Amino acid sequence: MQMLVLGAGQLARMMALVAAPLDIHIRAYDVTTKQVLHPVTGERYEQSLQQAIEASDRITAEFEHVPLDVLALCEQSGKFFPSKKAIECGGDRAKEKALLDTAGVASAPYVLVTERLHLDQAINEFGLPLVIKTCQAGYDGKGQWRLKSSEQTDDIWQEMLAFLEKDVTHSIICEKMIPFEREVSVIGARDRQGNVKVYPVTENEHTNGVLTLSVAGIVNQDIQAQAIDAYHKIAEELEYVGVLAIEFFEVDGELLVNEIAPRVHNSGHWTQQGAYCCQFENHVRAVAGLPLGNTDLLRPSAMINVLGQDAIPQQVLATTGARSHWYGKKVKPGRKMGHINVSADTLNELGKRLNELSEHLSEQDYPGVKARANQLLSR
Ligand code: ATP
Ligand code: MG
């Protein structure tokens, strides 16, 4: 089977690596350069998007910021999964909030802002600080403002206005700042018959808006049940096919959705060695119309993002249970270059392995590894 993936980054690459043993062959479409590429070698195919669509049996996406005309072409072919609507909801916070409201899933309270009045309304309703996000442009914490004190309001409004005036199709959302205890996410897959399989909830740490560390196997059953409930509601509302990720804030034992990602997700990379069938394979399976693989936890696992580094100390690979996954990208400050997965039979053993890794990974470049090791060791 030939599968086309919209987007040619690391997610397409990791899909291709697990698709090959299924005899599914992936080509990636880089929406920026408009080239069709091999997602692992980067080799270029002399093919237009239209030709690639025709030559494919199935089409999917690895990210949500796909131009609408490209999405429309793919949807018309009848080969595209999950759907244009699902990708659009992931790429537009206003559509996403409307979806969550319709599905009956709680999320951070919000106001859509197109004029100053709306900003003042948000300040009155939610108080300060406020989280302000562009609806269509953000990723990795980019395209956001934090309004912390009322003296900043006029300045931030000027910046918001400049943004709104630059492109009339763009909009802005103001959210209540949620005083969360932790951030968690759930990844799951839904097939074309509507069967759903959900991985254990992952606990995530962000540094400067970017995911730095995920741990799976530590979340209690009550949180897991809430996450599964939200997952079913959202996936069914979208008649979703493929892997879908949902990020949550946990406040007083309750989950509030932060955002959804209609694709495989960074906080699910641990499934490459911590679950029976990883998120990449389950996405490919769902899109291909194959049965979903088991999503149970095989062993407690953690994932450490490699940001802005093009090498890791060799001792990392000498740590039992640790493996590196490089994305083959040119290094830039803060860029997601790869990740390290580490697993163990018990949480205590995982703590020991993270502790060993923290001796080789600096706190500055790999924040939170040592603290997480200590937390697991003191359980
Ligand atoms: P990514 O695509 O990498 O997940 P993003 O750019 O889409 O990130 P968000 O997930 O919306 O952005 O926000 C990034 C981080 O900012 C969140 O993980 C969270 O730590 C913080 N944050 C966002 N919204 C809120 C909120 N309403 N209250 C408190 N913290 C927030
Ligand atoms: Mg996010």
From TrEMBL:
InterPro entries named among the record's database cross-references: ATP-grasp, ATP-grasp_carboxylate-amine, ATP_grasp_subdomain_1, PreATP-grasp_dom_sf, PurK, PurK_C, PurT/PurK_preATP-grasp, Rudment_hybrid_motif
EC number: 6.3.4.18
Gene Ontology terms for molecular function: 5-(carboxyamino)imidazole ribonucleotide synthase activity; ATP binding; metal ion binding; phosphoribosylaminoimidazole carboxylase activity
Enzyme class, broadest EC rank: ligase
Residues of the ATP-grasp domain: 97-288
Keyword field contains Ligase: yes
Catalytic activity: 5-amino-1-(5-phospho-beta-D-ribosyl)imidazole + hydrogencarbonate + ATP = 5-carboxyamino-1-(5-phospho-D-ribosyl)imidazole + ADP + phosphate + 2 H(+)
Binding-site residues for ATP, renumbered to this chain: 93, 133, 138-144, 175-178, 183, 206, 258-259
A GO-annotated cellular component: cytosol
Pathway in which this enzyme or protein is active: Purine metabolism; IMP biosynthesis via de novo pathway; 5-amino-1-(5-phospho-D-ribosyl)imidazole-4-carboxylate from 5-amino-1-(5-phospho-D-ribosyl)imidazole (N5-CAIR route): step 1/2
One Gene Ontology biological process: 'de novo' IMP biosynthetic process
UniProt keyword annotation of Electron transport present: no
Keywords linked to the UniProt accession: ATP-binding, Ligase, Nucleotide-binding, Purine biosynthesis
Sequence similarity: Belongs to the PurK/PurT family.
Role played: Catalyzes the ATP-dependent conversion of 5-aminoimidazole ribonucleotide (AIR) and HCO(3)- to N5-carboxyaminoimidazole ribonucleotide (N5-CAIR). Catalyzes the ATP-dependent conversion of 5-aminoimidazole ribonucleotide (AIR) and HCO(3)(-) to N5-carboxyaminoimidazole ribonucleotide (N5-CAIR).
Subunit and interaction comment: Homodimer.
Protein known as: N5-carboxyaminoimidazole ribonucleotide synthase
Species this chain originates from: Kangiella spongicola
